[in-house]
Structures are given as C-alpha cells and as structure tokens.
Design goal:
- By secondary structure, the chain is mostly helical.
- It folds into two domains: 4-30 and 165-250, Helix-hairpin-Helix base-excision DNA repair enzymes (C-terminal) (Endonuclease Iii, domain 2); 38-156, Hypothetical protein, domain 2 (Endonuclease III, domain 1, Orthogonal Bundle), CATH 1.10.340.30.
- It has twelve helices and no strands.
- The longest helix is centred in the first third of the chain and has 19 residues, at 8-26.
- The mean pLDDT is 93.
C-alpha cells in the first residue's frame, strides 16, 4: 500500500474532502471575527499565545483603554507609540490577565521599537506592496514572530491575504486525520498544510480552512477523549478508525 505521505496528490485530495465535510458542518464562508489593522492584529496575536480568547481580548482592550489613540473611521484605536515608550512594568500590569505577561510586555515593546526602526513609524503599510511569502518573511524577522503570527496578521487583519495560520487545534486535526505526520511540529506544518490547498484559493477560502479545522478541534476532536463516535471525518481518519478497533473486537 502506498504511504500517503509520499503521495502529494492523494494528500491534496484528502485535504479538500476534509475541507468540504467540515464546511458542511460549520458553514462556509466563515465570517471574519474582527477587522483590526495589521499592527493591532500583530499585538492581538502576540497576546493570544497560549491564552484563552476572552483573556487576550480583555488585555487588548485594556491596552486600548490605557493608551487610546485618535479614533479613525469611527473606531477606537491605540497609541502604539505610547505603549512602546511606557515603562515595561506598566504594560505588564495592563496585560496581566494573559499567560506570561512578564514575557509578552517586553516582547511587544521590542517589536514596536523594531518596526519603528525599519519603517520610520508605527505602521505596517509596507506589507501592502509585498507578496504573501515576502510579507511573512518581513514579519518573521521581528523578534518573537513565527509562522502562526505572521499568517494571522495577513489573514485576520484588514489586509485579508491568503495566508494559512495553524494553531494547536488545527494541527491536532491534521495529525489525526493523516494530513501530516505526528513528528511535524506546528511551525513547519504551516508550509506543508498550505501546500495541500489549491493555489488559486482566495483569502476567504484559506481563512475558512483554518477556521473549520480549528472549530473541529475545539468541538469534536478534543485533545483528550475525542468524540470519534460523532465525527464527520471518521471514515477518513486513521486515528479514529484505530480507536474503534477494540469496539469491533468486542462486538
């Protein structure tokens, strides 16, 4: 039998079928959950690392409340220069609800300083003129920014670019369904999983793929005790099939 990992065409076909089935369950296109400018999305993504959405969202709002910027187009904004130049202990106190605020506060300030050095200001407008690979490389040259964050900035922000983020839920579903080997870490999996999607897909469809994979991990393919008995992907999932073998043996 052919090893699926050595058959790119079979993997692409499987990825598309998984996408189709999950879209049927969760509904595609999936609405974007917010419309932040790229710099705000970058900070939001950094705050969210290993942190629940409610806590990271509250921390982001706390930054905006403590250092408000000039409203634009009727929306509130943040004075990122003030965040950059504030005492680090104060930034840490404002974002205290996230995981590791003592690490995230100085990292966010270091990134804001680096962006200022590279662009002469605090804007990521430079990304508008770059291809997706170029924009991701630009972002990943910032301290502490990896593939997930660069993809999130391009996909989730008002840039709306076709970049595929992979979080822990997405990664878990991809491993269990056999799209990637268990030995492939989250970071390197970005390029592999993105290559399985049609190159002509626009930003919305790439975003949909991430969202439905993530939602499936959150609502069915749990870290512990996945709900294989009600999984729409069961027939395609070698992990789920293996979990069912003892039941078949007892029947």
């Amino acid at each position: 039998m052919t090893d699926l990992f050595t058959d790119p065409a079979a993997l692409r076909a499987k990825a598309l079928e998984i996408h189709r089935l999950l879209c049927r369950i969760h509904g595609c296109p999936v609405p974007y959950f917010h419309s932040l400018d790229p710099l705000s999305e970058l900070v939001s993504s950094l705050l969210s690392h290993r942190t629940r959405n409610a806590a990271s969202g509250a921390a982001f709002k706390a930054l905006r409340k403590r250092w408000p910027g000039q409203p634009s187009t009727g929306q509130s904004s943040t004075d990122w220069a003030a965040v950059r130049d504030a005492p680090t202990t104060e930034v840490e106190a404002v974002i205290a609800g996230v995981t590791w605020p003592e690490q995230k506060a100085p990292r966010i300030q270091a990134i804001l300083r680096r962006i200022t050095e590279r662009t002469g200001g605090l804007s990521l407008d430079v990304l508008n003129d770059l291809s997706v690979p170029e924009a991701r490389a630009w972002l990943e040259a910032l301290p502490g920014v990896g593939p997930k964050t660069s993809a999130a900035v391009l996909s989730f922000s008002t840039l709306r670019r076709a970049a595929l983020p992979v979080d822990s839920h997405h990664h878990r579903v991809a491993v269990r369904t056999g799209l990637i080997p268990a030995s492939l870490a989250v970071g390197p999996s970005h390029a592999v999983l993105a290559a399985q999607l049609p190159p002509e897909w626009d930003a919305q469809r790439v975003y949909d793929n991430h969202e439905v994979m993530m939602l499936h991990g959150q609502r069915c393919c749990y870290h512990r005790d996945p709900a294989c008995d009600r999984c729409v992907l069961l027939d395609l999932c070698p992990t789920g099939q293996a979990r069912r073998e003892p039941e078949r043996a007892r029947a």
